[in-house]
Automatic annotation (TrEMBL):
Family to which this protein belongs: Belongs to the claudin family.
Name of the gene this protein is made from: Cldn5
PANTHER family: CLAUDIN (PTHR12002)
Membrane topology: Multi-pass membrane protein
Biological source species: Alca torda
Stretches of the chain forming a coiled coil according to its record: none
Protein name: Claudin
Length: 216
């Protein structure tokens, strides 16, 4: 029962991480305006995401524009789009695979096959966490590099937005949930893989008594 509860916990963490990746993918706040030095005008805040740019006015109004051309986008934006969408699809596959092989479901009979299916689902969650970590770290590296680059104009410098932090939190949930699912499934398989030994029945001797060697 303990392994089943931990397995459900790992599945819940994986689902939360999957939802977090979808949220981070849709948010336009991957890069935000940096108000430093002479650039202290806070009337407008620029948000840059994977799918659109937004300008937030101090009056509360916001205008967003979807990118016109995909091929004209920077390499990190194209890679971020591809990987986050791939992770969203793989997260759905991991959810279905894990549910099919979970201990709390009866889709497959308990055994080695069911444990392997659950391990496959946990491995897919771990793969999702690794894949989504690539664009997050790529964007963070570019933002930090341009921020400290003296050749970049102050108006062009950006800071890391909320979408990056949501993505990192989702990555942690995916990795931890996937590892938890795999560990619980491996421990369950080890517990059920002990060989069963049967002892030979005791046979009575010719005089009707049991042989003494049966008691040794």
């Amino acid at each position: 029962m303990t392994s089943a509860a931990l397995e459900i916990l790992g599945l819940g963490l994986g689902i939360l991480g999957w939802v977090g990746v979808i949220l981070a993918c849709g948010l336009p706040m991957w890069q935000v305006s940096a108000f430093i030095e002479a650039n202290i005008v806070v009337a407008q805040t620029i948000w840059e995401g994977l799918w659109m740019n937004c300008v937030y006015e101090s009056t509360g109004q916001m205008q967003c524009k979807v990118y016109d051309s995909i091929l004209a986008l920077p390499a990190e934006v194209q890679a971020g789009r591809a990987l986050t969408v791939l992770v969203a699809l793989l997260g759905l596959v991991a959810l279905m695979v894990t549910v099919v092989g979970a201990q709390c479901t009866n889709c497959i009979r308990p055994g080695k096959v069911k444990s392997r299916i659950v391990i496959a689902g946990g491995a897919i969650y771990i793969l999702c966490g690794v894949l989504v970590l690539i664009p997050l770290c790529w964007f963070a590296n570019i933002v930090i590099r341009d921020f400290y680059d003296p050749t970049v104009p102050t108006s062009k410098k950006r800071e890391m937005g909320a979408a990056l932090y949501i993505g990192w939190a989702a990555t942690a949930l995916l990795l931890f949930g996937g590892c938890l699912i795999c560990c619980c499934s491996c421990s369950q398989r080890d517990e059920t893989s002990f060989p069963v030994k049967y002892s030979a029945p005791r046979r009575p001797t010719s005089n009707g008594e049991y042989d003494k060697k049966n008691y040794v």
